[in-house]
Amino acid sequence: MYEAASAQDGCRVLVDRLWPRGLRRDAAAIDLWMKDIAPSPALRRWFGHDPARWREFAERYRAELDACEAGVRRLALLARAHGRLTLLYAARDPVHNHAAVLCEYLREAPGGVSPGRPEAGLLARLRAEHARMLGLVDEARLALVRGDAGAARDACECLAQLHRGHAALEESMLLPGLPRAARWPSRTYEAEHAKAAHTLCELQQRLAAAPAHLRGARQRLQLIDAALPLRHVLEHHFAREEQGLFAELGAA
To answer: Which of 68, 103, 115, 152 has the most CB atoms around its CB within 10 Å?
Structure first.
């Protein structure tokens, strides 16, 4: 972290749990700070940068990396997207530090640090969740046709929970691997996640103010119409992801 950045560094990722001492954050040339990929606080304290404990430290840290599948996969995606991955650390010893262990671990992992594309199972899950979320919007609208605002609220709550997890998964597992020359940058997808969440929240607020059983046709129609913007937002966003994000990650 204390050496000057280079144009050949590719994606620069800080892999320390603590911020380097004496280094201003606004002056740090990093693309991402991944705290959770660093050794656990207990392991770090036990090691204490003692070379005599190096071999056992490396073994223990590898065991922690085995249990950190999401973080390892995220680094692999970054390596693939940027062509080069630079792991940054603050230790003064360039040999006996966890970044060296992490680098070796990534190179030895199946497929190395550039697996080529996200796992097919992950993408299949995301596509299935797209369909499920649109289905939940339709469930809410059909419930409103019956005058059952309570069932519509339940469908929207299920949708809200699914959307939160879905967006978090994409932002942690897919967006970091998006090529810099992508048609739409990661901030576009993040903004659309926020817009969908806001539109859903507005609908939930209207449903919360309505009685559980709607009697008037006018009130039913107003709530049915209120659900339309949410469906349009989700349809547009899902189409952009499946035609852009997934394809640009080489996973379509």
So the answer is: 152
DSSP string, 147-181: TBHHHHHHHHHHHHHHHHHHHHHHHHHTGGG--TT
Q: Give the pLDDT of residue 107.
A: 81
Q: Are 171 and 245 in contact (CB under 8 A)?
A: no
Distance of CA 223 to the CA centre of its chain: 32
Residue pair 84/8 in contact by the 8 Å Cβ criterion = yes
Q: pLDDT higher for 194 or 11?
A: 194
The number of folded domains in the chain is: 2
Judgement on whether residues 158 and 243 belong to the same structural domain of the protein: yes
Written as one letter, the residue type at 235 is E
Cβ–Cβ < 8 Å for 136, 234: no
The chain-wide mean pLDDT, for the chain, equals: 87
Q: How far apart are CA 198 and CA 153, in angstroms?
A: 16
Q: How confident is the model at residue 118 (pLDDT cuts 50, 70, 90)?
A: low
Query: Which residue range is the domain that position 25 belongs to?
Result: 11-108
Confidence at residue 246, expressed as pLDDT on a 0 to 100 scale: 83
